Amino acid sequence: MSHDMSENLPEAHDASHGTDVATHGDPFADPGLPAHEPRRTDIDERAAQRAERQVSLMFVVSMLATVGFIASYASIDADKIVYIFPLGHVSALNFALGMTLGVALFCIGAGAVHWARTLMSDHELPAERHPIEADDDVRNDVIEQFKTGAAESGFGRRKLIRNTLFGSLALVPLSGVVLLRDLGPLPEKKLLHTGWVEAEPSKPLRLVNMNTDQPMKAEDIVQGSLTFAKPEGLEESDEDFQQQIAKDALMLVRIAPEDIKDAKSRDKGFEGILAYSKICTHVGCPISLYEQQTHHALCPCHQSTFDLADGARVIFGPAGHPLPQLKITTDEQGFLVATGDFDEPVGPSYWERPR
Question: Where are the transmembrane segments (predicted)?
Answer without folding.
Answer: 55-76, 96-116, 160-180
